[in-house]
Amino acid sequence: MNYKALVEDYRERLIDDLMGLLEIESVKGEPTGSAPVGAGPKAALDYMLELGARDGMAIKDVDNIAGHIEAGEGDRLFGVLGHVDVVPPGKGWDTDPFVPEIVDGEIVARGVQDDKGPTIAAYYAMKILHEEGLPFKYRTRLIVGTDEESDWQCTEAYFKSEEMPDAGFAPDAAFPLIHGEKGISTFNFVQKPMALDEHEPKIELKVLISGERYNMVPEDAEAKLKVQQNMSEVIQSYEDFLREVEADGAYEVDNGFLKLSMQGRSAHGSTPEVGVNAGLILIRFLNGLALDNNAAAFTEFAMERLVGSTDGSLLGMDFSHPEMGETSVNVGMINYTEVDGGIFGVNLRYPKGLDFESGMTGLKEEVYGQGFTVEDLDYQLPHYVDREDPLVDILTDAYRNHVEDDTEPFTIGGGTYARTLKKGVAFGAMFKDTVDTMHQKNERMKIDELLMATEIYLEALHRICIKGEMDEDKLL
């Protein structure tokens, strides 16, 4: 089968259908009975299902929040899982984010990389096989989600009632292939109330604020102090500290209060080691002051449990896997007030092999003795497909047949829709030299890369679902 020639025959139709999908402002909105995550995502779901019906394939809407398009016959099911919701466009675009334009061979629009372009590429791979009239060995199903950018309500609802594919992939990451994703957890360390100081402290910590999201390293931090005496000494100490740790900070005296600010460097929560956590740096300074007892307990806890290491060792959760790497810990949010005490918002990611539940049980007991509780715990288990699995081999080979790249399949600390599948991997659609513009202004995708991804998906689905290169025993 000449995959390149077939895709070229569908070039204009593919681009036209993608443009129509990109015009839909599918940002999560107010829920209604007929649109659980808003009218925009529901309109995008309807659009995809209408394409499937137009092209003679079976379609199904699941609770107005997910759906599927299916081709072929067979007892086994192969799934492709994409999403049509997008993040808000933000400011600073050179074009209207929901009026897609072709500029210098690239389609510019919100969602073209994440994940409408790859989803349409996978759809057209399935559509071409269907319209070629080839006999399917496995049913092939494009599952369409509408809440990937937020809470994954779509996949939760879908798999409550629908069949789990025997294997599949999510076209929402990078080539050649991601076959493992760390477990992802979020939780809060919440300080328990303490008795007030018997004597007025020299320095009272009124407020400390840093970070807004669990999965981002905070780049800013601010604290407000009431200094009863020797204000100039505290200021001099702060200036000395900034020079010592080579940090970027500032101070201001306002109505008798000392306001401190700290600048760090942001990074994704899956790689906290490449960022500079402004909140934790500021805590390092505060911990050296004669603080009131509540604030002192707060900073001392941070110094013992959170400052100085991102590998989980301070929490007793360090673990390393030969392919998936080490545990990582990001303190994404820090909030303290003299009235309510403090909270640390933690994003912990861990590889296959760590007994997370046992570790959390022990951690809860330990921190309780330090005056803290663990609250709002939420987690997803690690997802892993063996590197030698036939699914990995066939998809990687399909990629290399179109691209000169010997990069090996890899694992990540982030999470994709692939983890919702029993046996799933993330497969494209970014290439080795693709500029990642996901979630950024002027999001764009090269038309040549869109078509190349379609060719790769076409070969992969042809070999698995038509030719049956993964026999039934190995598919499970």
TrEMBL record:
The keyword Acetylation does not apply. It comes from the Bacteria. GO terms for biological process: L-arginine biosynthetic process; proteolysis. It comes from Salinicoccus roseus. Residues 259-335 form the Peptidase M20 dimerisation domain. Belongs to the peptidase M20A family. This is Dipeptidase PepV. Keywords: Dipeptidase, Hydrolase, Metal-binding, Metalloprotease, Protease, Zinc. Pfam families: M20_dimer, Peptidase_M20. GO terms for molecular function: acetylornithine deacetylase activity; dipeptidase activity; metallopeptidase activity; zinc ion binding. Its cofactor is Zn(2+).
